Every structure is written in C-alpha cells, then in structure tokens.
Amino acid sequence: MPLKNTRGFTLIEVLVALLILAVGLLGTASLMLLSMKSNQNASQRTQASLLAYDLAERMRMNRTVAVENAAGSDYTMSLKANDSPPSSPNCFGSSTCSNAAQRAQDLREWTENFIDINGVGVDGDDYRPAIAGSTFVITKANTNQYTITIEWQESINGARAANDLDNDRDVTKSFSLNVEL
User: Is the pTM higher than 0.85?
Assistant: First the structure.
C-alpha cells in the first residue's frame, strides 16, 4: 500500500529541526554573554574616566594647594579599592574651611567614591567599589602637572589555563589622565 497521502513530519525531520534550533539558541546565548562581558568592560573604562576627571576638577577648584611643593600638602597619593579612605575635616556647609582642609576633604570624598560607589558607611550595605580590584595613583610631574592613573583587571576571551572553566584571561587595563593646573 503506497503512502501517497502521508501527512506530517518524520522523526528524523523533527530531530534535524531541533538540532538546528539548539545550535541557533546556543549561538544566541554565546553572543549575549559576550555582549554582557563587553558591556561590563566598557562600564569599567567609563567609571575610571569619570573618577579621574572628577578628581581633576577638584584639583582645579583648589589650585592653590595643588601646586604647592611641600611634602604631604599636595594631591599625590595611591590607594587600592579595598583600602580605607584617608581621614578629613568636615567642610560641609562651612565657609571657613582652609585650602588644606578642602584638599583633605576632596581626597576623602573622592576615595570614598573610588572605594564604595554606594557611599562609605552611609547605606549600610557591603562595600562595592566603583571598579572591583582596582588601584589608583596620583603623581605630580612638576609644580602644576599631575597624572591620575587608575588600573583594574578586565576579563577578555582567550585560553588562559587548562583548568580554567570560563576560558577567559584577565588583563590589566589602565586609564591615565594628565592634568595641567
């Protein structure tokens, strides 16, 4: 009896269609993961840029202290994301805050933003650094020139080790800003 009027799909056709669909979904998931990782890396670069420019503007606003040559009275310092911020006077709402006290306040506020983007001791949450695992160094090249450097670890695709399950490798990225006052 011939099967001329057969309707529907055979099991092999269904399995081939499922295989094609599965490969397509895996490709889509892979692209989404790569997109999320690229977005995270771009976010870290943006945070580094914003933090560096914020400090540069603070130094420009307090230029008198920033160009001093006395040790410990300028804006030079270095810090890791898990360090404690420096102490500072409370210059909020005070018009009698000296330039040196304003410098200490600037560095405290800036490092608080660097160490905990949510606000150190304000929100009650755990510390959440602006850029996880990062460090910053502020160096003074001459009387009126500073370099602000922020370094962090960024994850990129590529074989790292045989026992590495995510097949990524971490590279050190940095953002440097030369500030002339």
Answer: no
Closest listed residue to residue 9, CA positions, set 21, 17, 1: 17
C-alpha span between 167 and 81 (Å, rounded): 26
Q: How far apart are CA 69 and CA 60, in angstroms?
A: 16
Q: Quick check: 51 and 152 in contact, CB under 8 A?
A: no
pLDDT class for 167, splitting at 50, 70, 90? low
Nearest to 143 by CA among 107, 102, 179: 179
Q: Which two tokens stand for residue 35?
A: 């997109």
**Domain boundaries, given as residue ranges, for the chain:** 11-180
Please choose, from the candidates 45, 54, 85, the residue with its C-alpha nearest in 3D space to the C-alpha of residue 179. 54
Residue written as tokens 């933003």? Answer: 113
CA distance 5 to 13: 18
The predicted-structure confidence for 110-166, as pLDDT tens digits, reads as follows 888 888 766 555 555 566 777 878 899 999 988 889 999 999 988 776 545 555 556
* Residue 13 structure tokens: 């056709």
